[in-house]
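Researcher: Next sequence.
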Amino acid sequence: MNKHPKKLLVVITEAVLETRIVADARRLGALGYTVSDVRGGGTEETREGRWEADRSIEMKVICDETTADAIASHCLQTYGQSYRLTLFFSDVQVLRPHKFGAA
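Model: Next structure:
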């Protein structure tokens, strides 16, 4: 099986940012993404999603490392001071690399 290395960028943030972050990711080179509604807690609060302003999302983007870095940097600089935001990367392998951008 011919596997190809890519980066998985995961962005967990407030649901109010979904439209903006999706547009940002597309503009910065993401060919696709997956968004899910999520709940969780951390050192500052618990987000249970019981009302609109308490909802959180998780956006996953599989792409090349340069694109993942650009999206993460933009999110951190643009939204990091005013919104709850968690970002992390993982190395992944894909089978159809053309679906996920440059090598």
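Model: DSSP finds two helices and six strands in the chain. The two ends are 17 Å apart (CA to CA).
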